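Researcher: Following up on the earlier apo prediction. This time include the ligand. It's S-adenosylmethionine, with the SMILES given after the sequence.
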Amino acid sequence: MAELDVATARWLVSTAGLAAVASATAQLDDGADELKVATDLARRTSHSERRAAALSAAVARRRARPRWQLAEDLLFTRAALEQASDPAVSTHRAARLLAHLGSTPTAPGAIADLCAGVGGDTIALAQAAGGSGASVLAVDDDAARLVLLAHNAEVAGVAVTPRDADALTLALPPGAVVHPDPSRRRDGRRVRRLTDHLPSVPALLAAHPATSPWALALSPGVALDDPDLPDDIEVEYVQLGDALVEATVWLRAGSSPPSPGAPGRRTRATLLRDGEVVTTRTGNPADRVRLPVGEPGSVLIEPAPAAVRARVHDQLGREIGAWRVATHRALLTSDTAPPPSPWYRVRDVAAVLPARPKELRRWLRDQGDADGAPLEVELVLHGVDADPQELWRSLGRPPRGPNGWRLEFLRRDRDTISVVTRTRRVVGPDR
Ligand SMILES: C[S@@+](CC[C@H](N)C(=O)[O-])C[C@H]1O[C@@H](n2cnc3c(N)ncnc32)[C@H](O)[C@@H]1O
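Model: Understood. Below is the ligand-bound prediction.
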């Protein structure tokens, strides 16, 4: 059953609905619990669906505040907010998509935002298209979400064209630029296979065999060699702060990278912070560098997750003279600390020990800070299949705390070792 019906969505965007959401939000801000807010909403409307929708919109609005500048006026449902792209990612993706076109299309439907939801991406596309947004067609098969999308577009000051339709059967104008963001959930459960997305990704690709660029928004878990993706693509792994948040599959976007190899799957890692692109680098898996494997040096180097997913971490390692700690680990090491960079985090290696509780306990006992208090440590597992709680107990329950020491358990090709590391005491740009 849809979380919101069209009649309730229309009420939500009315003066009475907006006032109910604003009041529910203010009460939640004042510390009222949801039951109390729902009871108060009963004074505004006798419809249980309206009360539920107003409460859901209020909860979602509060969650949206840290990321959405206009949150105070936007309307979401809880589920729609969870599914919406982060605005920083939408803005980046829209800017790249429009940049591929050279000139901004103005014909109605020239930019097709398929699976538009409540409009996070639609608004970013319309803004990138110059603000009028007349060329952006926002398609979703959930008519109630489109009612909220129209409201949100108005709040953002862009005029878009909502269309209640199935993205698989809708005929798009010839040459339309396509931006699909299919749902990664089915029956409430997260799905991995591209055929299980809603709508199915291969079905979407088959339905619109256009010649124009596509930006297909997927989860960062998508594998570069997924057989349900076409061959001539770029997969861009996007990291926001420390979190890997998305993979955008670019089709017919002809520019990137300044292709060193033949058509094939290319990669890009992009780091965003505060809505800005911090840096980006491209790779071509066909030209992949393979770093040698060796013993831990004086520093451990943890590449940014986007670099690892885009398989550019070995290239990065070569540039800084690092090697791998194990054949199948992305973790790098070196005897010289590399210069500060957003592409990796560096930790000093204090000791390399066998991963045996008895020896580790002895080592911890022998350390201690200047006052003889035991070291606070954090346990980090790299490919080690162990229960962290049990491991901690086997080490004699050392105090845990954020004072910079880590016991890193590292599964290598033939054994497991423990590397004691601590935060580098160097001032420089972090990720
Ligand atoms: C991940 S959400 C989109 C979020 C949106 N891009 C945003 O940033 O707010 C996916 C959307 O796809 C819609 N959808 C699922 N199947 C569809 C289909 N066959 N045709 C059109 N829309 C569909 C769902 O209703 C849902 O709103």
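Model: The CA atoms of residues 230 and 251 lie 8 Å apart.
Researcher: Noted. I'll compare it with the apo version next.
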